[in-house]
Amino acid sequence: MDECIFCKIVKGEIPCTKLYENEQVLSFLDIMPASKGHALVIPKNHYATLLDLPHKELKSVTKAIQKVAAATMVALPGVQGFNILQSNHKVAGQVVPHVHFHVIPRHENDKLNFAWEQGKAEIEELKKYAELVKGKIK
Ligand code: 5GP
Ligand code: ZN
Predict the structure, then answer these.
(1) Does the beta carbon of 73 lie inside 6 Å of ligand 1?
(2) Among all ligands shown, which has an atom nearest to the Cα of 92?
(3) What is the pLDDT of residue 2?
(4) With a 6 A CB cut-off, is 92 part of the ligand 1 pocket?
(5) According to a count of CB atoms within 10 Å of the terminal CB, is the N or C end of the chain lower?
(6) What whole-number distance in Å separates Cα of residue 116 and Cα of residue 1?
(7) 100 an active-site residue?
(8) Cα separation of 32 and 37, whole Å?
(9) pLDDT digits (tens, 9 = 90+) for 83-102
């Protein structure tokens, strides 16, 4: 993926503030952080979305997320929690088309807000959607 910005970071063609890496995974600080210490965790291989990421690499990425989040919790002052954000496709807010996970440190009374307006659903509607999805789970 010649034009992918995260592939360029993996190859060292664009600098990053590296937090962690192993054979399959790289973690670095987000250049436009939602909060101090906002990190990204990516597979080194290029995959567009979560659905393209093979299980073996997903496992490595997940382990790295835990490592980075745990370190962030103890290393950075005032961090009392974190959100993991992962967006797939443009409609969901994915800007960089190389699968990545955000690790976003949270502080008491920070102004971040991932809340949405709670919807309403009838049980029959839930059952209908459950049947549709269940039928496609492989
Ligand atoms: P998305 O919106 O695709 O889930 O998130 C992409 C993230 O990548 C954004 O938070 C953005 O700030 C970050 N980002 C984009 N380009 C670069 C870059 O060149 N370096 C770093 N460190 N982060 C980047
Ligand atoms: Zn890429």
Answers:
(1) no
(2) 1
(3) 79
(4) no
(5) C
(6) 34
(7) yes
(8) 10
(9) 999 999 999 999 999 999 99
